[in-house]
TrEMBL record:
This is XPP2 aminopeptidase. Pfam families: Creatinase_N, Creatinase_N_2. The keyword Protease applies. GO terms for molecular function: aminopeptidase activity; metal ion binding. It comes from Melospiza melodia.
Amino acid sequence: ALRGILRTHGAHAYIVPSTDAHMSEYISERDARLGWLTGFTGSAGTAVVTRDKAALWTDSRYWTQAERELDCNWELQRTTSIESIATWILKEVPAEGNVSLDPFLFSIDTWNSYSRALRGSGRTLLPLETNLVDQAWGDQRPPPSSSEIYSLPAEFTGSRWQDKVAGIRQRMEQHARRPTAVLLSGLEETAWLFNLRGDDIPYNPVFYSYTLLTNTTISLFAEQSRLSQEARQSLRSGCPGPLCVELHDYGQVSAHLRRYAQGNVTVWLGTEYTTYGLYAIVPQEKLLQESYSPVMTAKAVKNAHEQEMLRAAHVRDAVAVIQYLLWLERTVPQGQVDEFSGAQRVDAFRWAQEHSRGPSFESISASG
């Protein structure tokens, strides 16, 4: 199916990464394009499909797994280097060929690496706004999350979102280049800034969103219908005015950024979490690029209340682990415990603790 679509776009190869549009470490089922296409369920890899070949690149953690999961359509490449992927592409794609990809799934660095590797080879790196895997996936693709986006109670944050916004605006004013806006692509950035949480990605309390924060306006791009009543009231409490959050649909971010970038502006962004697709919308001279956005660096420094909450959470978690170890001591000699039942048990102890929202990754409960 993908090859049929590839031909209609005049492309000779299509690159499929394992990331989502926010460079998230973990992704939702809806974004598991690599897994759907290849059958490979490891968390990191890159696939390239040409009109008559297909290959998957992954690191040594996954070689055995990939051998089991890939069928004979696929060649397994035991490396992850872009040089290796590009070399393979140059061998398989004819000299005037197009190598296409979705620019909203590649980091700026990764895009630039492919661009450099193909430069002067006669092959063209062709960004396609529609994702070809999604087209092939069609109705079978899992739907977007419909769960609630909720406000984190003040007792956990130690800082109101309005104060966080004021702090970021202050950093904008103090910066030598005086940026007029900050663009946030990392999901935890928007969640932290507005004290909001969701569960769009398993084990991660985030929701799909972007934020464009200017000196006088705040634009939040997310699925509006999913905001809890309380969250919506909190965001709209400062309307009209500089602390009024304007709500836009998640899919509107590119169009909005394109309009904004036409003015006399400077957009500050963190390159680690911004995709090439968004980055390319803003003219180079209007960009202020740093590895991390000012929100990411502010978020990294926990206030006294957050530190207190972290310690309290670790104490509650330690109680659950001690209960688990005691349970193991009693039940392992009976020969009834395996890794899976152990994982279920430690999760149950954790769930029983106050404020628990579940583990932060799938429990790895035992060895040997």
